[in-house]
Write a structure and sequence with these properties.
By secondary structure, this protein is α/β, with parallel strands linked by helices. The protein is 36% helix and 11% strand. It contains 13 helices and eight strands. Helix 10 crosses helix 11 and helix 10 crosses helix 13. 37% of the residues are buried.
Length: 363
């Protein structure tokens, strides 16, 4: 049986819930600043009334029109994930790909790292910079159509400040692909200058496209080539081997399978990978992930509880997350939690609540 989600933590600088949540179902670690539910068959929580806590600001939006606190949301997601089974996914072909990719990087002039624009930090491989060294790099934030203008502007300013060359793209429609091609060629133009100086003939620029599973690497290549050369589908793990493809006479592209760390230590990032379908379904409990998604959407000022209630015609009360998924299951799926959870996740992925990022830059 999947554990019910822990309640939202009270607004504070730590992850620990307030004294109102400290009951017999909780054990508090003396070494860390958070509490986790005991693993029992029933981890139900007695929710405080709206008059007893600050939970009402999560249900009714940001208090006093204050600027939304993204750092607090990250802390809350971190807290919610602690009692859950860790999300881990490392199929056999990834280990093989990682080894082969390191060898191919020796032949590459410029690296194109593709990330999901909804979660740019969570789709950043912790070893990527070490593998790339001093090679030219272009960062592509794919699925720009799935985030708001405010999200895009925030990330554009953040990466510009870091001196990172970033392109926003839509691999499904081809937006940003020609700009990407021009930038890749310009960054590697000195390759043929050096070859001519040595009396060698010019060769095509070699660009490697890397990134997490299902972030749209193959779709970008297909749009660049204007034909389907690489298998692509809206699920992780479709591409399973490295493949070189030619783009005219001036550019060669290396399509690679998605690569993940062998162990994902940041479970806040892992949950967001699951929400955005950037990791295999077998790695997580769909009910838990959908419940956390609901708790996130309730807090986002651009969505809030109104959009969720309107979508499913179910009233939200103090019992959020898992309880709401159970209500959806009872109303639409004869009590089937998994079907209800899949519906909620699919609705988010299709933009039924509006397009919004789940991360903002850590200013």
């Amino acid at each position: 049986m999947a554990l019910s989600l822990a309640p939202l933590p009270q607004p504070s600088s730590s992850f620990a819930p307030s004294h109102r949540f400290r009951n017999s179902n909780y054990v508090t670690s003396s070494r860390k600043r958070y509490s986790v539910p005991r693993v029992t068959a029933d981890t139900s929580i007695n929710w405080p009334s709206k008059g007893e806590s600050d939970f009402s600001i999560y249900v009714h939006g940001v208090a006093n029109n204050e600027e939304f606190n993204w750092d607090k949301l990250e802390s809350d997601i971190n807290y919610w994930t602690r009692p859950l089974r860790p999300v881990q996914w490392y199929p056999g072909h990834i280990a093989k790909t990682e080894k082969e990719l390191k060898e191919q990087l020796k032949l590459i002039d410029v690296v194109i790292e593709v990330r999901d624009a909804r979660i740019p930090l969570s789709t950043s491989h912790p070893m990527m910079d070490r593998w790339l060294g001093n090679r030219n790099k272009i960062l592509v934030l794919n699925r720009e159509d799935m985030v708001s203008t405010a999200d895009r502007n925030a990330w554009a300013a953040y990466f510009a400040k870091q001196g990172v060359k970033v392109i926003f793209a839509n691999g499904q429609l081809g937006m940003g692909t020609m700009k990407l091609s021009r930038l890749a060629k310009s960054l590697a133009s000195d390759v043929n200058v050096k070859r001519r100086a040595k009396g060698l003939l010019p060769r095509p620029v070699r660009a490697g496209i890397v990134g997490y599973p299902n972030v749209g690497k193959s779709s970008l290549i297909n749009r660049l080539l204007k034909r389907r050369m690489c298998p692509a589908a809206p699920r992780p793990g479709v591409t399973r081997q490295l493949k070189w493809v030619h783009f005219g006479k001036d550019l060669e592209l290396l399509d690679s399978p998605g690569i993940l760390p062998m162990r994902i230590s940041d479970q806040t990032a892992a949950i967001k990978l699951a929400i955005c379908d950037d990791i295999g379904e077998r790695s997580y409990d769909v009910g838990d992930v959908a419940a956390i998604l609901i708790q996130i959407l309730i807090r986002l000022p651009t969505i809030g509880p109104g959009a969720i209630s309107k979508r499913y015609k179910i009233d939200l009360d103090g019992n959020c997350g898992r309880t709401f998924i159970e209500k959806v299951a009872l109303k639409l799926f004869n009590g089937d939690i998994n079907q209800a959870a899949f519906r909620v996740l699919a609705d988010f992925r299709k933009g039924k609540f509006g397009w919004v990022a789940l991360e903002r830059p850590p200013w």
